[in-house]
Amino acid sequence: xxxxxxxxxxxxxxxxxxxxxxxxxxxxxxxxxxxxxxxxxxxxxxxxxxxxxxxxxxxxxxxxxxxxxxxxxxxxxxxxxxxxxxxxxxxxxxxxxxxxxxxxxxxxxxxxxxxxxxxxxxxxxxxxxxxxxxxxxxxxxxxxxxxxxxxxxxxxxxxxxxxxxxxxxxxxxxxxxxxxxxxxxxxxxxxxx
Amino acid sequence: xxxxxxxxxxxxxxxxxxxxxxxxxxxxxxxxxxxxxxxxxxxxxxxxxxxxxxxxxxxxxxxxxxxxxxxxxxxxxxxxxxxxxxxxxxxxxxxxxxxxxxxxxxxxxxxxxxxxxxxxxxxxxxxxxxxxxxxxxxxxxxxxxxxxxxxxxxxxxxxxxxxxxxxxxxxxxxxxxxxxxxxxxxxxxxxxxxxxxxxxxxxxxxxxxxxxx
Lengths: 193, 213
Description:
The structure holds two protein chains of two kinds. Chain A has helices at about 5-15, 25-30, 35-70, 75-95, 100-105, 105-110, 115-125, 130-160, 170-185. By secondary structure, chain A is mostly helical. The longest helix of chain A has about 30 residues, at about 35-70. Chain B has one domain (about 10-210). Helix content of chain B is about 70%, strand content about 0%. Chain B contains nine helices and two strands, in the order H-H-H-H-H-H-H-E-E-H-H. Chain B has a two-stranded antiparallel sheet with strand order 1-2. In chain B, helix 3 (about 40-65) runs antiparallel to helix 4 (about 70-95), helix 3 packs parallel to helix 6 (about 115-125) and helix 4 crosses helix 6. Chain B is flat. Classes of the chains: A mainly alpha, B mainly alpha. Chains A and B meet through helix 2, helix 4, helix 7 and helix 9 of A and helix 2, helix 4 and helix 9 of B.
């Protein structure tokens, strides 16, 4: 059990060790859907939500696995349970709240195999967080992911108006922007812990 | 992916350059950036990924007639996760220090879209021989790409290569290169270089066709 305070866990996950800009997790959706601000906001929301679900799942599976003494099944059970839970949530959401489903529907299946989700589950296990700590950690990670995505989308929307050399357009430009963003996030080092 | 029959050599070589997973297809970027802060980390990650890709590809290829279409993604993920778990424990057994520096990123090979992509697009349709060549080629391409990024970052960021000091004491290291943002920059530079070469090739080809017609 880790003794870090909830506030410092949140800050740490959202800013200091931002999942995208410090751990390079979830890079594919980060580059894929960061071209427009609106999609970026929705994607950020959907990822945060899945992270919360995944974190709760991972916490319960870990308890179960420790109880039966089979930690080597961790990777396989995490990914399967997270994937199926997200599918279940997706179906429920389609029934219960069609507007929300339409807003984040197409992104949900994509997110299940996003490395940020599995990364979150593994990190929280490695750090030995308790239940509330794990939930706060997932909220922080989700907020950080959404923040990075929205910032990136903002910059890329502006970039559309700029005159970028043909060679640099696309992934290379996105990488350079991400590098600069990541550099600016280094300014948060020392906050939290 | 072209479905026409290609020679065995071409099957292997395509992963190295024409369809290079990192620089051309831009797949599997998370590990490419995250663990490439030193050359040795990059090499380990590349080899681990190659191993998983090869074993998972072979299993998928052998079992392809028994796996029902509806459940194929889940089955692939199970197969991949099994091999990733074994790699995780193998690396832990070989070098605990290396395992610690790679951290959770070995486990995250499971969600490397490159492996699932190859299983779905290639291994589920071909025999084991072809799949071996393809996996080895793609794995080699991935390993080289990672190694390129890792070498640049380690030389500039720590002034060493594979842990061997390269420069005299006066060398001012570029700390930024070992930090996360250095990963983005190093990858961007390599990508620019690859784009430039491809662009030149395309232009030369165009000129040749124009001259010929």
